[in-house]
Amino acid sequence: MYATIRRYETGDKARAGELIKKTEETLLPRLSKLPGFKGYSLIEARDGVFSSVGFFDTAAHADESTRVASNWVREEKLETALPTPPKVTSGEVVAHDNTRELVTA
């Protein structure tokens, strides 16, 4: 399994809600249809920082998700909300435990 982590810094903190909504409505459906898709989470940190974590079967699948996310930013006209490219880290998952169910608020 491979993971891709993206760290985004919003240029316009007032658009954070829009970013979350568009992620749920338009990005997640695209990513979930990609071959090898295993899961995705968007994390809201402080001061307009967001991180996402995507899980895929192969490195090629994870790389494709980065291309899809980049196109999505342009298509959804989020360049002002996300003025700098994300910092991307990708690699093989070398330790993983998915035996407990996540509890969400």
Provide structural commentary.
This protein is an alpha+beta fold. Helices cover 32% and strands 29% of the residues. It has a 4-stranded antiparallel β-sheet with strand order 2-3-1-4, covered by helices on one side. A hairpin with a 4-residue loop joins strand 2 and strand 3.
- Rg estimate, integer Å: 14 Å
Overall pLDDT, averaged?
Answer: 89
Do you know the CATH topology?
Answer: Alpha-Beta Plaits
Helix content: 25-40%
Number of helices: 2
Shape descriptor reads: globular
Q: Give the percentage of residues in beta strands.
A: 25-35%
**Structural class given helices, strands, pairing?**
alpha+beta
CATH-level-2 architecture: 2-Layer Sandwich
Please describe the biggest sheet, giving its number of strands, its sense, and whether it closes into a barrel: 4 strands, antiparallel
Number of separate structural domains: 1
**CATH class categorisation:** Alpha Beta
Give the distance, in angstroms, between the N- and C-terminal Cα atoms.
Answer: 27 Å
Strand order of the largest sheet: 2-3-1-4
**What's the helix-strand series?**
EHEEHE
SSE topology:
Elements lengths: L1 E8 L6 H17 L4 E8 L4 E8 L2 H17 L11 E6 L13
Helix pairs in contact: 1-2
What's this entry about, in short?
It is built from 2 helices and 4 strands. The chain has a single domain (about 1-90), classed as Alpha-Beta Plaits, CATH 3.30.70.100. It has helices at about 15-30, 60-75; strands spanning about 1-10, 35-45, 50-55, 85-90.
